[in-house]
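Notebook entry, cofactor series.
This is the third protein in the set we're modelling with a bound small molecule. For this one the ligand is flavin-adenine dinucleotide. I'm keeping the input format identical across the series so the outputs can be compared line by line later. Sequence and SMILES below, as received.
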Amino acid sequence: MITEPPPTPPVVAILGAGPAGMSCANACLSFGLTPVVIERDDHAGGAQRSNFHPNLWMLGAPGESGEAMTRRMAEHFRSLPVHTLYRAEVAAVERENERFHLHLEAGESLRADAIVLATGLRPRATPALEKLAEASSRVLIGPLSPVIRDGIRDTDVLILGGADNALDHALFLAEKGNRCVVCARGAFSARAAFLDACARWPGIELRPSCATPELIPLPTGIRAAWPDAVRDFGWLLVMYGYLPNTEVLDRFVPALRPALTADAHVRVDAWQRTGVPGLYAAGDLTGPPQPSVPTAIAQGLAAARAIERDQRAANSGQ
Ligand SMILES: Cc1cc2nc3c(=O)[nH]c(=O)nc-3n(C[C@H](O)[C@H](O)[C@H](O)COP(=O)(O)OP(=O)(O)OC[C@H]3O[C@@H](n4cnc5c(N)ncnc54)[C@H](O)[C@@H]3O)c2cc1C
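Returned structure with ligand:
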């Protein structure tokens, strides 16, 4: 009697081990899929890993900080039987028959039946500010670093940006005894509660319609030169918002690149399908109305469910 070998579970390559990627991997296991996670950092957790504020949107854990919550999720993720490649990045992705062939930068390669993009966002800055941050350790791009939490005390801080993160950080730093100047190119777009709180705080100066000054690195900070004034600051924080981490798509052959929205997020349907068969996306990369950990977790789960359903349909010839 000839016995058929058991069918091999479909392999799902998940790019990114933030909440969306970790949740997708976890759900893949319960849907009979084999997840392989490719994370470019040396740890799982994603953007919340250094958030020292309480996560207000995670039901069931009131008061828990983003970093404590992330530690909990990453610990669970690491306990799962999920093959995870850290410090790994995709170098090229092509189609091979009905499957994907992923070539990794380290020279390894992987064949997968589906791919989930879960690479999140990165802080936005101009090329000139990125260069300045490389030249000076007193220039920080984006929010939530341990230096902001622990290292900035009793000094003058210049914050560029006018949205929630700029004002939230001004309030946090003012509470630590710093004096903050917040410079927004146009009107402030931050939520009213932050604007009111900043306006009441004597150590915070809000400057709308403020041209970006000329910025000169100093040994102990940054000199900001406006046409009418020059002032030295201990630190410069750049809070210009975020860009989706879609640069990895340049490494996909053109036929496998998904459509993007007008603001450069990956376009998905309600099942997290991108429109390229077998390619899904979850989390901040898809530009959900309220990017958050619960949203990313839900989308990672939905992507796994969609893959299970689509693979079953493909295998039954539907
Ligand atoms: C300042 C701030 C405050 C926030 N506060 C809250 C809050 O209070 N509550 C809340 O619920 N949410 C909050 N959020 C939002 C929350 O952090 C995100 O919505 C959530 O982390 C999105 O998860 P994600 O998995 O989509 O992306 P991420 O968490 O960004 O994870 C993406 C992962 O992909 C990896 N990666 C990137 N590119 C590649 C690549 N090419 N190859 C492999 N891996 C790659 C990254 O290293 C990272 O590990 C906040 C965000 C910020 C910035």
